[in-house]
Design brief:
The chain has 246 residues and is of the alpha/beta class. Helices cover 43% and strands 20% of the residues.
Length: 246
């Protein structure tokens, strides 16, 4: 289910899966407003779980939010971040004409006014590609938040190409972009990652769950197997997309 608010013409949809952090929603919305994101062609899509114990608080936050280029999507029961993200990204890629799709956590706050046009200009120049900005912590090393052209999602049937649940999704997106020759870092854009590891937030139950030893073991193994078995083939498919567009 998707609840819509009035939006401008959409060229870029950023998907923000969130669970049990309704207090994060107004901060993200305000950061988007402050950086003129809605007016420059971006749509903000929050995704929540119907079984979230904080569901009523989310509903209250959305009910009181000012109209803008945001939407709220939901799924019946909890899924890990990556399957949830892939579900919504594939739906958008297949059934809308949105040029580009992206991911951000509910702890990513845009700080650079005009970041949307910078992202879109770079993506239009690439034709088929992936872009990311400075998150204030990992910098060029990892795209903890990114945007990619929708044709990549349609081609692979996923936004995150590796079968991980949460961790190593940014590593997978980076490696796909590097291998396919279509990754661009935009250091002039700051989308700050307000994460406990960066010393910018307190830990909570959600951070503890997704950073557990069990999560690391499972996702690390899945990432390594994907990298050796599937990455070359997927990167070739994206390379072929780029060639066809020339």
């Amino acid at each position: 289910m998707v609840v819509a608010a009035p939006i401008m013409s959409v060229e870029l949809t950023i998907i923000v899966p969130t669970r049990s952090r309704p207090e994060a929603v107004p901060r993200v919305m305000q950061a988007w407003h402050d950086t003129n994101a809605y007016a420059e062609g971006a749509e903000l899509l929050f995704v929540i779980d119907i079984d979230d114990p904080q569901r009523e608080k989310y509903a209250d936050v959305f009910a009181r939010a000012a109209p803008g280029g945001w939407r709220m999507g939901s799924i019946p029961t909890w899924k890990p971040l990556v399957p949830k993200l892939n579900t919504f990204a594939v739906g958008r890629a297949r059934y809308s004409d949105t040029f580009a799709l992206g991911f951000a956590g509910d702890d990513h706050l845009p700080r650079t006014r005009g970041w949307v046009r910078t992202y879109l200009d770079a993506l239009y120049e690439l034709g088929t590609g992936i872009v990311y900005g400075d998150d204030g912590y990992q910098h060029e090393n990892l795209p903890t938040q990114w945007a990619m052209t929708s044709d990549i999602v349609r081609e692979l049937g996923a936004m995150v190409p590796a079968p991980v649940e949460h961790l190593y999704c940014d590593n997978a997106v980076r490696d796909l972009g590097v291998e396919a020759g279509c990754l661009r870092y935009l250091p002039e854009v700051l989308i700050e990652h307000m994460h406990p590891v960066a010393g910018k937030a307190s830990t909570d139950e959600q951070y503890e769950r997704v950073n557990s030893r069990r999560q690391y073991r499972g996702d690390r193994q899945a990432f390594r197997e994907w990298r050796s078995a599937d990455l070359p083939r997927q990167a070739q498919r994206i390379h072929n997309l780029r060639e066809q567009a020339l």
